[in-house]
Design brief:
alpha/beta; 2 domains; 4-stranded mixed β-sheet; Spore Coat Polysaccharide Biosynthesis Protein SpsA, Chain A
């Protein structure tokens, strides 16, 4: 149980956990990961027979990571020490773990949320939206991403390399377990109003944003690839059509002004696609995301050289179009030049040359990401 000034509710939590262990015959310990309490929680927990682990580094995730590392059991079940979860009713968690599940999540929406136990903002907006995004991004079966009562195989969880020290630890555990294809199940869990006489540590908007930010950063596809592909395709289509002729849509005429926006979308989309590749390669190389075959082929193949050649070719094409625009201006004796004619050459020229520069230097950056470092031999 992570603990920060929970002297009011610790007796009930420890008592319920002990009742479960005695009733079920499970051999286990009650571990309190104390995060710097100043209300005597540590002494009270020790007096009640729990093992107390001092975790000096503040944060919900920091306390849980330290507790998981210090736990002695094959299975670990953790839950908030505010008496909002009933530690005397953990049978379903143990049964699923013994049946082979590697992560067992509580689901408060299936088990029941008691009146006053969850703010409406969390119940009807924050948790459903973030849980939906998590399922969409990571194909996980979990429908209650932020339930604070969970059980798991300790060794399987240690292998995930969990590192988030704040509230987003709750999302990190589910995301990494999903990416590593661990066996995940949910069991109904009842959420009761906590027994504290002070506000919770959770800050709705700040911690909600931290969860959303984590989900986005762990999914380069949704953060970069899909938006980038959409912008790139729309920009390419617009540039291809409008560089040849105006486009009439009903009473609206799309001309060189729209052409400029199409070019901007194309360049922005290309940049996002490159960010998607950079992020994926970096995350795989550093073990943040699981290996992907194409990353290995990109790293070990001639991606750098191919990118350099294609980038140089695009730059040459852009320069060639720019020369063509100068020749067209020359035909007008370098005097007034119809923008509708000139910009149909200049905008594609600048766009293609810019794409060439992006591709050339992005290929160099990929080469940097692929560099291997070796420590000195012991």
């Amino acid at each position: 149980m992570p603990c920060l000034n929970e002297v009011r509710t610790l007796p009930a939590c420890i008592s319920k956990a002990r009742c479960f262990l005695e009733r079920s015959g499970v051999s286990g310990e009650i571990l309190i990961a104390d995060n710097g309490s100043t209300d005597g929680s540590q002494a009270l927990a020790a007096q009640l027979g729990a093992r107390v682990l001092a975790v000096p580094h503040r944060g919900y995730g920091a306390a849980l990571i330290a507790g998981i590392e210090a736990a002695r059991g094959r299975f670990v079940i953790f839950g908030d020490s505010d008496d909002s979860y009933d530690f005397s009713r953990l049978d379903a968690f143990v049964a699923e773990l013994r049946s082979g599940a590697q992560l067992v999540m509580g689901n408060r929406f299936k088990g029941g949320v008691m009146p006053g136990a969850m703010p409406p903002l969390h119940r009807y907006l924050g948790n459903p939206v973030l849980s939906f995004i998590g399922r969409l991004f990571f194909k996980t079966p979990v429908r209650d991403f932020h339930c604070g009562l969970r059980g798991f195989h300790r060794n399987a969880m240690l292998e995930l390399g969990l590192c988030c020290e704040g509230m987003e630890f709750a999302s990190e555990m589910v995301v990494k377990a999903s990416l590593r294809n661990l066996s995940i199940v949910e069991v109904p869990t009842t959420l009761q109003p906590d027994g504290r006489d002070r506000p919770p540590h959770l800050r709705s908007w700040r911690d909600g944003w931290r969860h959303l930010r984590f989900l986005l950063l762990f999914s380069p596809r949704w953060l970069y690839l899909y938006p980038g592909a959409l912008l790139f395709v729309l920009g390419a289509v617009g540039l291809s059509i409008l560089s040849l002729t105006p486009l009439q849509l009903g009473n609206v005429t799309l001309d060189v002004h729209t052409l400029l926006f199409a070019a901007a979308g194309l360049v922005a989309g290309a940049q996002l696609l490159m960010f998607a590749i950079f992020s994926k390669v970096f995350a795989v190389e550093h073990g943040i995301l699981p290996p992907a075959p194409w990353v290995g082929r990109l790293r070990d193949g001639p991606a750098l050289e191919v990118g350099l050649v294609l980038g140089a070719a695009l730059i040459a094409l852009g320069v060639g179009l720019a020369v063509r625009s100068v020749l067209a201006w020359n035909a007008a004796a370098y005097g007034p030049f119809d923008p509708a004619v000139g910009m149909r050459i200049v905008i594609p020229a600048a766009t293609i040359a810019t794409l060439g520069v992006q591709l050339l230097f992005s290929s160099m950056f990929l080469g940097v990401l692929g560099l291997r470092t070796h420590g000195r031999p012991a």
